[in-house]
């Protein structure tokens, strides 16, 4: 590894929750603002929730859904198919950062899978964890009991996950968590960093600790993935840990831990966290009346900047990404304008997407936002893509702004195209 890697602080890391996940929002309120899950105004525990997995659970409990239960891999594959989550999104994590930390080591990694609004964690010989995003409440957490062959396992809401996923110091917003934790042989954290950060603005050199990484091209920089730390005579020594060296890949649905999936997952976690922090702040501000226009703009403008990748860390150029099994699954179902363009079109050279506007504008959490928040957010997005200069879109050339505007006008119902 290069000598120029960032200086790290050592920290022991206990269960950090389902690492489909990922860090609390940069826009989270100050620690002394009690606006999150403990605030009765938000009714996190009591309000009916509208996340995708809630509907699945109702059908599962009523036995209207039948999945294969003869083996844990068969059950996992059929569950992912039912939730419309591609197996190719698989990421393997060797650090013990979960409620199941006693089962996770470099010899028994945890696998993570995701689509636009649902995140699944699988530990061989353990339980399956789920985070599903509700547009008004944020992350809702579930866990399946361990599979007994031939018997459908029960699944329950798991609010004890909030200990790590909605900590007081981050405003108690139920978030996704992404962290770099370089493990030792037991899976415990030897080096950990970037806690409290998520999104495409996190430096590439600070990512991937505790993850296996496949599909990186020759131009992709060295990173903290595929490593463990051994102690020799009291000195920490970094040791390569290639995928499959310490465990049997046949215990997982795929032989990959895809780089493209990890880059897209990072973007999604950052947006989900910022979006949910904005929803909670908007609701707290407007609880006794309407939210002042200046306060509303202070909430939506940073979200628009993130949607438009204003702070994206650049990729190193052609050859950074290799061949990815996730490419086709990610592009499937893309909404295309009459010119054939879509927000899911990849660039993969100096940036992640060809058109720098997040495809998550089509997601259920975005579509289900309270209208008094969603409409100003869409209006601010349209204004940022108009011909005049705007602080949140000044990084976009005029031609790219126009292309994004045209794609949204053709594919996103209700988009107020200010330039038409």
Please, could you describe this protein's structure?
The strands form three sheets. Strands 1-2-3-4-5-6 form a six-stranded antiparallel β-sheet, sandwiched between helices. It is α+β, with helices and mostly antiparallel strands and 420 residues long. The chain contains nine helices and ten strands. The chain folds into two domains: 52-251, no CATH class; 271-411, no CATH class. 25% of the residues lie in helices and 12% in strands. Helix 4 (259-285) packs antiparallel against helix 5 (293-307) and helix 5 crosses helix 8. A hairpin with a 5-residue loop joins strand 7 and strand 8 (189-193). The longest helix has 27 residues, at 259-285.
Which features would summarize this protein structure in a list?
420 residues, globular, alpha+beta, 10 strands
Short note summarizing the structure:
The chain is of the alpha+beta class. Helix content is 25%, strand content 12%.
Layout of strands and helices, then pairs:
Elements: H1 52-61, H2 72-82, E1 91-93, E2 110-114, E3 118-122, E4 128-134, E5 138-144, E6 155-157, H3 162-165, E7 180-183, E8 189-193, E9 227-232, E10 235-240, H4 259-285, H5 293-307, H6 326-331, H7 364-367, H8 371-384, H9 398-411
Q: How far from one another are the termini?
A: 52 Å
Amount of helix: 25-40%
Beta strand % = 5-15%
What coarse outline follows from CA principal-axis ratios? globular
Biggest beta-sheet profile: 6 strands, antiparallel
By secondary-structure content and strand pairing, the structural class works out as alpha+beta
Number of DSSP helical runs: 9
Mean pLDDT: 88
Number of strand elements: 10
Q: What is the count of structural domains?
A: 2
Order of helices and strands: HHEEEEEEHEEEEHHHHHH
Low-confidence stretches: 1-32
Strand order of the largest sheet: 1-2-3-4-5-6
Radius of gyration: 21 Å
């Amino acid at each position: 590894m290069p000598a120029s890697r960032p200086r790290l602080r050592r920290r022991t890391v206990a269960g950090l929750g389902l690492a489909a996940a990922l860090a609390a929002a940069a826009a989270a309120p100050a620690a002394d603002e009690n606006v999150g899950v403990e605030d009765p105004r938000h009714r996190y525990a009591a309000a009916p929730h509208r996340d995708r997995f809630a509907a699945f659970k109702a059908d599962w409990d009523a036995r209207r859904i039948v999945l294969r239960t003869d083996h844990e891999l068969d059950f996992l594959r059929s569950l992912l198919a039912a939730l419309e989550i591609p197996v190719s999104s698989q990421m393997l994590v060797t650090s013990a950062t979960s409620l199941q930390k006693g089962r996770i080591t470099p010899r028994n990694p945890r696998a993570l899978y995701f689509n636009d609004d649902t995140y699944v964690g699988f530990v061989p010989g353990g339980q399956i964890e789920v985070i599903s995003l509700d547009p008004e409440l944020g992350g809702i957490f579930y866990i399946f009991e361990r599979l007994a062959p031939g018997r459908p396992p029960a699944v329950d809401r798991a609010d004890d996950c909030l200990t790590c996923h909605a900590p007081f110091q981050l405003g108690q917003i139920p978030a996704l968590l992404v962290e770099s934790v370089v493990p030792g042989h037991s899976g415990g954290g030897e080096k950990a960093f970037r806690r409290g950060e998520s999104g495409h603005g996190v430096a590439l050199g600070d990512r991937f600790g505790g993850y296996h990484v496949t599909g990186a091209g020759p131009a992709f920089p060295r990173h903290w993935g595929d490593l463990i730390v051994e102690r020799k005579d009291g000195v920490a020594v970094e040791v390569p840990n290639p995928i499959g060296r310490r465990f049997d890949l046949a215990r997982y649905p795929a032989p990959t831990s895809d780089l493209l999936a990890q880059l897209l997952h990072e973007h999604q976690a950052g947006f989900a966290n910022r979006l949910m922090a904005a929803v909670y702040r908007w609701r707290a501000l407007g609880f006794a009346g309407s939210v002042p226009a200046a306060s509303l703009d202070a909430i939506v403008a940073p979200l628009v900047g993130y949607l438009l990748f204003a702070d994206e860390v650049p990729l190193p150029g052609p050859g950074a990404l290799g061949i990815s099994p996730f490419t086709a699954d990610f592009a499937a179902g893309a909404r295309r304008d009459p010119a054939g363009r879509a927000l899911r079109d990849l660039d993969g050279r100096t940036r992640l997407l060809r058109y720098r506007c997040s495809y998550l504008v089509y997601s259920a959490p975005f579509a289900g936002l309270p209208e008094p928040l969603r409409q100003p957010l869409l209006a601010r997005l349209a204004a940022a893509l108009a011909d005049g200069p705007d602080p949140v879109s000044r990084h976009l050339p005029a031609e790219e702004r126009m292309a994004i505007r045209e794609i949204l006008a053709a594919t996103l119902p209700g988009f107020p195209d200010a330039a038409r």
